[in-house]
Known about the structure:
Chain B is α+β, with helices and mostly antiparallel strands. In chain B, about 25% of the residues lie in helices and about 35% in strands.
Amino acid sequence: MAIKTVYALVIAVIVTAVVVGGGLYYYYTTVLAKPRANLLEIYHWWTSGGEKAAIDALVAVFQAKYPDVGVIQSPVAGGAGYVMKAVMKAMVAAGEAPDAFQVHAGYEMKPYIDAGYLDPIDDLWAQQGWEEVFPPVVKDMVKWGGRYYAVPVNIHRANVLWYNKHILDQYGIDPATLETWDGFFAACEKLRAAGIRHPIAMGGIGKWEIAHALEQIFVSQGIEFYQDLINGKLTDPNDSRLVKALQIFNRYLDYVNPDYATLTWDQAVARVIRGEAAFTIMGDWANGEFLVAGKVFGVDYGAIPVPGTKGIYVLVVDCFERPKGARHPENSIKWLIVVGSREGQDAFNPIKGSIPARLDADITKYGPYQRQAINDFRNAKYMAPSIVHGSGAPEKFASAFNDISSAFASNRDVSAACRGIIDAINAAKDEYVKEWRLY
Amino acid sequence: MVNVCIKDLCKKFGKTEAVKDFNLEIKSGEFFVLLGPSGSGKSTVLNCIAGVIKPTKGEIWIGDKLVVSAEKGVFIPPQERNLGMVFQDFALYPHMSVFDNITFPLKVRKFPENEVRMRAEQIAEILGIKHLLNRKPGQLSGGEKQRVGLARALIRNPPLLLMDEPLSNLDAKLRVMMRVELKRIQREFKTTVVYVTHDQVEALSMGDRIGIMSAGTLQQVGEPIEIYEKPINTFVAGFIGSPPMNMFNCTLTDLERGVLKCDFGEYILPKSVAEVIFMKAVKELILGVRPEHVKIVSKHMPGALEAKFIYVEKLGRELIAHLKIGESKITSIISPEVHSSLKETVWILFDENKIHVFDKSSGQTIV
Amino acid sequence: MEALLNEIIFLPIIHKVPPGRNMSSYGSIPLTIILMVSLVTAFFFIYGLIGWNVLLSFTKSMGLITSYELAGSIQYMKAGSDPVFQISLKNNLMLIMLFIPGSIGLGLLLAVLLDIAGSKGETLYRTIYLLPFSLSFVITASMWAWMYNYSYGVVNTLLTALLGRAFQINWLGDPNIALYSVILALIWQFSGYTALVFLAGIKSIPESQINAARIDGASAFQLYTKIVIPQLKPWILSAFVVLMVFALKAFDFIYVLTNGGPGVSTYVLALLMFRRAFFETDFPYGAALATILFTMVISVVVPYLLLSSRGREK
């Protein structure tokens, strides 16, 4: 047995070495050396019905323009790209970067930039004249060290308060009164008195749903405050604006469904659709849920900026970039040209439910909610990158922010939350490499 | 000591009838052997007595206690039947020491500690396993396990001891030894024993009486010698005895004279036998004769049949001669001395007082 | 890491290999070679990568930038000062202390009940009990999220119907309760599996022993407590190791059910590792956490494997 095993082991090692070595040899000499097929390989996390149709429309624009390039889409399922984030970091680190991949603009790009995995594309920006068509904050979000690294494809708005119009009509609540927190809470109180115990619907199973609401409340405390927050400039846990924001959130939570911890964001939206709750704060991807339920904007439901954020557009931005060592760098560039083009963005966004990151969208192609959003976007006084959706603040802070928000929703301890925010900023202080200028 | 009475016992497993119409009275203090090939239903009967199987029909009495009756809805669970059982695989509890194994029946009955110890030592002494008390079953040999199993079954001094093929897992030498041992133990404990086996040697050597089973029915009950000499049918005749009884298909050609036409030729029945056959008026018969009743002679004699040796099995003191008469084969037991004096062609004679005649259609014994 | 743990989690199940069968008795050299090739490949892809992971945790790597310059135990110091690490560790210990005995206890109870119920409908029971285990954790976790729903969940609906409003419990929203809710759901998920392992163990006890015990006078209760359950020791040990490894590497179920929340009250080490490595792009720290987890798992599995291989040699 023993000698036989040793022989077998030796043979096995040799066989394995030959097979693996041969495979690698073949790969490097034949597969890589061959004139590469004319392909474009892209990764994204748009896998649900509407999302898939949107990216397909964008790919269709690309293929109409470059019919000789084959497109390989590699969608990675998993809500808000949580799986793909892991997959892509692993792939890029292994030197297996695709020709382009979806990433949130802003701080989510930082690890790739730090490690030098992305190529700057300043020439492309200049050549395509994109400098003129994207708003400054959006441009800032894809700029690192003064150089462009990506092209934004769409904008979702984070600071949207969705309401069930029938309920508001029934109880005589004018949406115009919801522009301030006082007006909003007065409406909540009125609805509660009328028997709707929990007029606000909120999810929370993934924690970010809670952080999302808190983030909008932070924005409502003024663009200066929010800029300090995302620039890591807050140092005082007793900062009155910070305390005020958490007090508002505390009051907000009084009206929130107690089962939030077991709900997803779309289940919360469904409560507004069904009329079990009047309000929910959610990004404007929620619009799709209303549409699927057959609801009509302006008739069954409405959307206004979160109280105190009128004139501010909180940005959730997806973008594509050119990874270093992409197999088909020239196709990568072609793809980015399409992604950044008006035509491409106007093909993608009407279906996706977002709006173009460009200011010159063809408004006729969009639904009623999106038209209003495009209008708001063009006329926005301020734009602000979202923390929760990977743009505004370092990943380390964003991750802690989720935990802090979730903890606060159950313990409602304002000072603990304030301390938590400041601690999280301090813990991530080396990573605040961007200086946002929002005003 | 206690007697066991089984009345009209039937047991079906699904559609198969394992035991049918089983009636038996086992006398108090008796060593009773249930003998049969595997699948004959003997273990099922034993398990019904033990109470680990419920019969489909019939009733069982242990002493004057009705322990189970399907008709009357009586069922006394095994632990209340006051019996011990020994199993083919010994069924020792592998996680317990020998001491814990044999005292288990006392401990679950909450016997006082000192009595448990006393009884355990006593029984260990009798069975010669005193030195093993602290071992685990995994460390014992087959024979030792057997003694432990016995000790556990006997520790409560039950009036009835059931044994299910207890020697089958032992090697041949040990088996012979244990046969004697078991008889000794039975005498010592004065217990009624019901013993199930497929081994006729065990049955014949140990049983006070034997019950032979085949295909779920009891064929014959009797003392070993009775079963051996007076089998009631061809099954019993063929099952008991080694080598088995020689049997030949015959047709009665001359009723008056008792002339049989057999495969090997003509055979004339002795007068006493012919008379019985005459009364029965059965024509198709089976002639049976045990090997030890087949005599071999070197010269032709009246009534002798010519035969040829095929080969000879040597079993020490005696030989089994396989011969050919006509188209049939026949075995005979002879001594080596006789064998050495013989040539290839010999003549054989049947011991006329020891021949058996069966009715071919029913298999029942006529003579 | 995940792949490795999955390898390990199913190892103990093969421990009832019929005795006397080993590689050499299959005899043929080509077959041995095939086995060896897979072994060598496994060694490279599993143990090689584990080695690399350990190395990574000691280097000066940062984020996605890999460096092979050694930095000592900085990353491990980080764990010492990471408050969430302590919470996660404590929660893993809670899982070990509650989830394992819970699953084994409930599994034993179910196995005994199944055994008493006998062969009638056994396949049905088997299917019913094994189903939760064969379902993806993501699915069962979503299901439990619904059942634990504060307002509409079946658990609270039943509790309030039986005991009144005061017993409406915020299963996942209360940081003092959420961990126990997770453990309860996990016990449910695993007890079907343990029940079937134990049932197989019960079935492997020869019937003659059961009959002997009954004749010897054991009541049904004594039969199980004195004869059957003591003999399940190797099965319990094997289930224990599987559960232990799971309790240490628990991730997907918790990720979906609470994502560590409320706050950080239900964080476990694997979840922390995932968050730190992939969400905060702190790969060296993630590698350090993975190494810590790996050490814990190994310290459970290796003694077990040694023990069971020694048992097999006997």
